[in-house]
Specification:
By secondary structure, the chain is an alpha+beta fold. Helices cover about 25% and strands about 25% of the residues. The two termini are about 35 Å apart.
């Protein structure tokens, strides 16, 4: 079958009308971003730099997705943070969804609740930047609206101009300055919990066709993607200095409200620095008053490390709890031979974070972690209930992680 014929003069006229430098801002931004990666102050090894370039690929990918999927008339949930696009010390147990909003429009979110440990919603004013976290206008989990017996639900977001004191169940105010709706579906038991479904509609634009693409709109999308590529790298290089790096090294804070986070979430943050023969023993009580509790380590890029083929995070469902009700983890480069090992994966320094979500009560300092630095040779004596696992058991744990990530993750 032959290709349709096209008047060559018409084709040339089209090419002349659309300048060839539409992608120039993105090309320049990628070059600038590469320099940010190459000159990062914490680089020590070639592996650090290679991880930086891999991190950059995720920033390019996410920036293009967020810029080109942006449509305020026809919003949709975008999944731009996952194992191939890591940022902001992303939670290995979470699927993140992001929808753009206008603060003067009404939206309806439809869904069917899965069996995940937590499903939460947050309306944000603006985005995170290198200067400050984004402002949170509304935050709640699925306990805040009706869910039918079959798991289906409907949530409505009204602009501030239409808000009153008597909102029906399942109706919320997005708030003045609302820019994005963030949804987090969080899994405590990777093996058994299943994803739900979710979609969003803007009430006054459903059923209307999209406006045709214009040269100006296309150029704007490339310009927005360019700003995102460099902006997100600068943001997440700066972000841990607001919080983690203000704490002494090899310590963790008591449970606190997460900055810009959810009402029912508490977190404990810190950063580590360990030699190859050193380890941190982190002890934290298992909390029965929340659906989700977890710990993770991350890289100096302020991103998760490989949680699919390495054990760099653990939920309470994945952890071994000692007879005294305490979960004791060992953070180290060398394998200490226990189930609750968090692998440094070649990172001598990095971030640490514990999370509690869907809490039924507030937490005190007694609910939080304690930390002890020891030599790897002394780990067994530092653990009151040392229970070794075999290499075969370790392999089985990693295989289970790979299968669970493959089943639930989006990319």
């Amino acid at each position: 079958m032959s290709a349709p014929s096209v008047d060559a003069s018409v084709g040339q006229a089209v090419r002349d009308a659309v300048p060839g430098d539409v992608t120039a801002p993105l090309q320049a931004a990628i070059a600038e971003a590469e320099e940010l990666i190459r000159t990062a102050p914490f680089l020590r090894t070639e592996q650090d730099l290679l991880e930086g370039y891999d991190y950059l690929s995720g920033r390019i990918r996410a920036s293009l997705q967020l810029a080109f999927d942006h449509d305020l008339d026809r919003p949709l949930f975008i999944n731009s943070t996952h194992q191939f696009s890591r940022q902001g010390l992303d939670n290995p147990d979470a699927i993140y969804f992001h929808a753009y909003l206008r603060d003067d429009a009404e939206y309806v979110v439809h869904g069917r609740r899965g069996t995940s440990a937590d499903l939460s919603f947050q309306v944000m004013a603006g985005t995170y930047s290198a200067d400050s976290p984004a402002g949170s206008l509304a935050a709640f989990d699925d306990r805040g609206f009706p869910i039918a017996d079959d798991g289906s639900f409907e949530i409505r977001f009204l602009p501030a101009s239409r808000a009153d004191d008597d909102l029906p169940p399942g109706t919320f105010v997005s708030g003045e300055g609302a820019k994005t709706l963030i949804v987090r579906e969080v899994f405590n038991d990777w093996d058994t919990e299943e994803r739900g479904t979710l979609w969003i509609e803007r009430v006054d634009s459903v059923g209307h066709p999209a406006a045709p693409l214009t040269r100006r709109r296309l150029a704007q999308k490339y310009e927005v993607a360019a700003k995102m590529v460099t902006g997100t790298i600068q943001t997440w290089l700066a972000f841990p200095h607001f919080f983690q790096y203000k704490e002494p090294v090899n310590t963790l804070t008591p449970p606190r409200s997460t900055p810009g986070g959810l009402e029912s979430q508490r977190s404990s943050i810190g950063h580590y620095e360990l030699a190859d023969d050193e380890a941190l023993v982190v002890s934290v009580p298992e909390c029965a008053d929340c659906s989700y509790q977890a710990i993770q380590v991350g890289s100096d890029w302020y991103a998760s490390t490989d949680y699919e083929t390495h054990q760099t995070s653990m939920t309470k469902a994945q952890s071994v709890t000692d007879p005294d009700g305490v979960m004791r983890y060992v953070i180290s480069e060398q394998d200490p031979g226990i189930a609750n090992w968090l692998e440094c994966t070649g990172h001598r320094t990095g971030s640490m974070m514990l999370r509690w979500q869907r809490l039924e009560r507030d937490l005190s300092e007694a609910d939080g972690p304690t930390v002890e630095k020891v030599k790897i040779a002394d780990v067994a004596s530092a653990l009151p209930h040392f229970a070794p696992i075999t290499p075969e058991e370790r392999t089985a744990r990693i295989a289970a992680r790979q299968r669970s990530v493959a089943r639930r993750m989006l990319s």
